[in-house]
Amino acid sequence: MNNGDGKRWNGGGEEDEDEDEGSGGGPDGWQITYADERSWESLQEDESGLLRPIDNKILYHAQYRRRIRSLSSQATAARIQKGLIRYLFVIIDLSRAASETDFRPSRMVVVAKLVEAFIREFFDQNPLSQLGLVSVKDGVAQCLTELGGSPESHVKALMGKLECSGESSLQNALDLVHGYLKQIPSYGHREVLVLYSALSTCDPGDIMETIQKCKKSKIRCSVIGLSAELFICKHLCQETGGLYSVALDEPHLKELILEHAPPPPAIAEFAISNLLKMGFPQRAAESSIAICSCHKEAKVGGGYTCPRCKARVCELPTECRVCGLTLISSPHLARSYHHLFPVVPFDEVPLSFLNDANRLPRSCFGCQQSLLNPGK
Amino acid sequence: MASAPSKLYADDVSLLVVLLDTNPFFWSSFSLPFSKFLSHVLSFLNSILLLNQFNQVVVIATGCNSCDYIYDSSSATSTGAESGRMPALCSDLLRKLDEFVTRDQQLGEKDSLGPTTSSLLSGSLSMALCYIQKVFRSGPLHPQPRILCLQGSTDGPEQYVAIMNAIFSAQRSMVPIDSCFMGSNNSAFLQQASYITGGVYQKPQQLDGLFQYLSTVFATDLHSRTFLRLPKSVGVDFRASCFCHKRTIDMGYICSVCLSIFCKHHKKCLTCGSVFGQPQTDVPSASNVK
């Protein structure tokens, strides 16, 4: 297979270079690879005895498909509602445990990078929702950004101060988030995602009371652990109806975090359905000059005009600063339709069908790839 | 040991997937006859293949009841028999197009749901995206794909969700959708498609010179587009239409459960049945939307 050949040549070239360099002084990158990561275990032999690396993509794809199938088999039976207007807080644990190096270069850096990807994915999948960031450091919870809809401001605040120290406190974080989430309108779904690296929590009061408070306010808390499973996290997720998972390694952590980007199945009593007034602004003409309400300076062309108060805004979706009307465009709504009408999973056809050329066509209907001789 | 494989594909190699509208209801009443239109398109496809020896062209026909692949420049059979006067590209394409149109018409007669006069743009967009995904997965070296819609029929509103899903999928894979719309009014779907995916939307004013529009605006590969001033999108209408009257509105009411758009305040959502202002007690089954 061409791809396999290409990879082997490249692998050979790299090994030669490393052997030539090999200077002393501390373990080199390639030595760490052999010592810690046991890269030889990821090699396999194919049928002719030649080496080939494990094709991870196929494994992941198979796992993904299995998971999607199990999720949708419950979902398509009864058309489960999803909470499409979400108010999510991400709590990032920046205690001493976040400086551990079991994730390279450190847990804190890996978590920050993945949270940035999560923020972009979240606003891509849920354009009508809002997100806020909270960090826990030295036993104190601090709000990095309040609930807002612009991904850039969140990412900038996150990357601005990345330092870890002290203990982590789950109760303080939950109390802070509870205070913010109490104020949001009743039709929104309240969610919390905790990225917990520490193995303990240092709380001023009774954390069980805080958990009950969150449960009564209908806040759905999910936790992703980076070190080990903790009872208190498991209890929190069970009480509030969230998901608890512990990451095994960096790709697994990425998968777990991004799993929270699409809207979760909604628990019907949690949000009161309501009719929201929203505006669909038109794009201003290319040569129009107006003072935009977000930057407070004159801009030429581009931009959108609020239909109620005619103020100019630079990007959508946003809330008009003058009259408070939520402004969106129809593609933003259409973005969420595929959550409401999910694709039915494909039926897997056994290999014996394929070899019987009378029953099935010779090539894929969608992409014209030949279906004879599967498995390349 | 041989050296690492040299980069076979430069930045300006493109894979162009052309979605050809073959709706007989549109072409029978249009000022430009279909045969003249085809001659413009065939010259354009030849010129694309001449620009770079690694360029690939795939043509998918959009019918009223089905869509199918008409031509693939990278398949082995495309270098088949040349008739005396036409090159292989034309003879293959025309023959398959002929077969497709007959098949499509037969499907339409069998279907008793009534005549559909809009073409299945969502179907051919999906097929094009499937083909492009296959190209992406074929290895690290592949041409840069883009989609060109040659469309004249009006938008079928029943395809809205499917077309928007295809547009978002193209946006995620970074595949621009260019549109050359020849109908009378502007097509809102194609304008949104080109705006969201970063393609070019053009409504040619004089159809006699269609080849000139195609070769100046749509022939350049993605890398070279950064150096050209291509037609900018003006007046893309992003307003939504309300579900009750299908009128475009610029301020409306949205159900927080199913995101249906209404122009007036209602007590109950017409799509999902949720009663507003009260906590729901039970998961209602979503009735058919649109």
Automatic annotation (TrEMBL), chain A:
One of its GO terms (biological process) is nucleotide-excision repair. Residues 1-32 are annotated as: Disordered. Residues 87-275 form the VWFA domain. PROSITE patterns: VWFA (PS50234). Residues 13-22 have a biased composition (Acidic residues). GO terms for molecular function: zinc ion binding. It holds the Pfam family Ssl1. It is found in: Nucleus. Keywords: DNA damage, DNA repair, Metal-binding, Nucleus, Transcription, Transcription regulation, Zinc, Zinc-finger. GO terms for cellular component: transcription factor TFIIH core complex; transcription factor TFIIH holo complex. NCBIfam families: ssl1 (TIGR00622). Belongs to the GTF2H2 family. This is General transcription factor IIH subunit. It comes from Carya illinoinensis. The lineage of its organism: Eukaryota, Viridiplantae, Streptophyta, Embryophyta, Tracheophyta.
UniProtKB/TrEMBL annotation, chain B:
One of its GO terms (molecular function) is zinc ion binding. GO terms for cellular component: transcription factor TFIIH core complex; transcription factor TFIIH holo complex. One of its GO terms (biological process) is nucleotide-excision repair. It is found in: Nucleus. The keyword Zinc applies. Signal peptide: none annotated. Keywords: DNA damage, DNA repair, Metal-binding, Nucleus, Transcription, Transcription regulation, Zinc, Zinc-finger. It comes from the Eukaryota. InterPro entries: TFIIH_Tfb4/GTF2H3 (IPR004600). Component of the general transcription and DNA repair factor IIH (TFIIH) core complex, which is involved in general and transcription-coupled nucleotide excision repair (NER) of damaged DNA and, when complexed to CAK, in RNA transcription by RNA polymerase II. In NER, TFIIH acts by opening DNA around the lesion to allow the excision of the damaged oligonucleotide and its replacement by a new DNA fragment. In transcription, TFIIH has an essential role in transcription initiation. Component of the 7-subunit TFIIH core complex composed of XPB, XPD, TFB1/GTF2H1, GTF2H2/P44, TFB4/GTF2H3, TFB2/GTF2H4 and TFB5/GTF2H5, which is active in NER. The core complex associates with the 3-subunit CDK-activating kinase (CAK) module composed of CYCH1/cyclin H1, CDKD and MAT1/At4g30820 to form the 10-subunit holoenzyme (holo-TFIIH) active in transcription. Belongs to the TFB4 family. This is General transcription and DNA repair factor IIH subunit TFB4. It comes from Carya illinoinensis (Pecan).
